Amino acid sequence: AGQQVMTYKYKMYRNKKDSRHLDHLIEYHCEVYNYCIALHRRYYRMYHKHLTANKLKVHLTKVRKRASSEHWRAIGSQSIQDVAERIDRSYKAFFEAKKERRGGRHSIPHFCKRKKYTSFTLKQAGYKLHDGNHITIFGRDYKYVAHRPYEGIIKTVTIKRDNCGDYWLCIVCAKPASDIVPRKGNAIGYDFGLKDFLTGSDGNRIESPRFFEANASALRIAQRELSRKKIGSGNRQRAKMNAARRHRYVKNCRNDWFFKLAGAIAEEYPDVCVEDLNIKAMQKLWGRKVSDYAFSEFVGILNAQLGKTGGRLHKVDRFFPSSKTCSHCGHVLKELPLSVREWECPSCHTTLDRDVNAAINILVEGMKSA
Fold first, then answer.
1. pTM greater than 0.70 (yes/no)
2. Average pLDDT, integer, range 1-7
């Protein structure tokens, strides 16, 4: 059996002194980041080559020993090396996307403002975890909410700051993977729609609470209050935090509902079939409603829950005509407008519900590759 990598996320206790100290640490790492970006660009102008991570690490080690880099020595050598590795991964992703000519936004790493730089990572050194809920980072003790114990060998420790000004401790651990026996049982297909969140091949319909729409009034008020505040003032900073907390509440509610729904589906069905939809194109057509459903995020959570219970997720190609194909005789219509919710097959004269028929076809097509 291989290894299983898990990330445990804990919220850190917040006080003014600890927050100020963590802010300084993140700012120091941002300074290193911007220094590396400038060095990359200068190296390319001079030699027309990409600066490798190893060369950059050697140079940063020399810079760190200088007398003028006293605050760099306060953040540790491994966290500085991680900054170089971050930039190297970003450049490799850019060149790979350019080589494969993939769509989407792919650009070289840019300079980052201190307020927008949000995290730093420690590997073997620079931290010490104590029994209970204490951690020492660069010689200073911090407390975090230990709501569950972490298991396995610690690989990395990351301190992350969110938009609300809260700090999170992310511990990545590796442990032996448990043997999961594949299950056998009933399979189900789900069709994603705009009217109902999911329509099952068994006829069951699942409606989404649409958390963003339910909290739209409070979000609108928070954004209006933010826009009225003077730029750079303390009131604007407080209004910004309030708006960020509103958005985080919506996100947490949606994730909670996703995990509960995915867990229930994974426990009941070992094989689940869904469509591999082009969500970006759907967002351009139907806008905020598709974003509120967050179907791609739900599919990722469902796939993880199925992996824990020995189930499998089968994805059907997005160009498969699931709605236009008759689930009884296989006849395919040439056109089927989205406004038509029920239609009669011209071949077998069966009256079909659009969403249920699509879910049945997704189930049949998905199980072909099982």
1. yes
2. 81
Residue 71 confidence (pLDDT): 81
**Alpha carbons 365 and 349: distance in angstroms, whole number:** 22
| Residue 111: per-residue pLDDT | 95
Distance CA 271, CA 268 (A): 9
Q: Which residues are within 8 A (CB) of 163 and not within 5 positions of it... i.e. 6 or more apart?
A: 241, 244, 247, 248
Q: Which two tokens stand for residue 332?
A: 């395919």
Full DSSP string of 42-72 = HHHHHHSSPPPHHHHHHHHHHHHTSGGGHHH
208 pLDDT exceeds 70? yes
3-state DSSP call for residue 189? strand
With a cut of 70, say whether residue 353 has pLDDT above it.
yes
Q: From CA 176, how far away is CA 2, in angstroms rounded?
A: 6
Tokens of 36: 């590396």
- Beta partners for 198? 192, 206
Predicted pLDDT at 104? 56
Structure tokens, 62: 């020399």
Distance CA 12, CA 127 (A): 15
Report how far residue 359's alpha carbon sits from residue 342's, in angstroms, rounded to the nearest whole number. 14
Place of tokens 């730089």: 117
Report whether 163 contacts 239 (CB < 8 A): no
Buried b (16+ CB within 10 A) or exposed e, 88-113: bebbeeeeeeeeeeeeeeeeebeeee
Round the average pLDDT of the chain to a whole number and report it.
Answer: 90
Report the distance separating Cα 147 and Cα 49, nearest Å. Answer: 48
CB-CB neighbours of 328 under 10 Å: 14
Question: What Rg do the C-alpha atoms of the chain give, in angstroms?
Answer: 25
Decide the pairing of beta strands 342-344 and 312-316.
unpaired
The first and second tokens of residue 206, run together, are 């699942």
Distance, in Å, from the CA atom of 155 to the CA atom of 153, rounded to the nearest integer, reads: 6
Collapsing DSSP to helix, strand or coil, 322 comes out as: coil
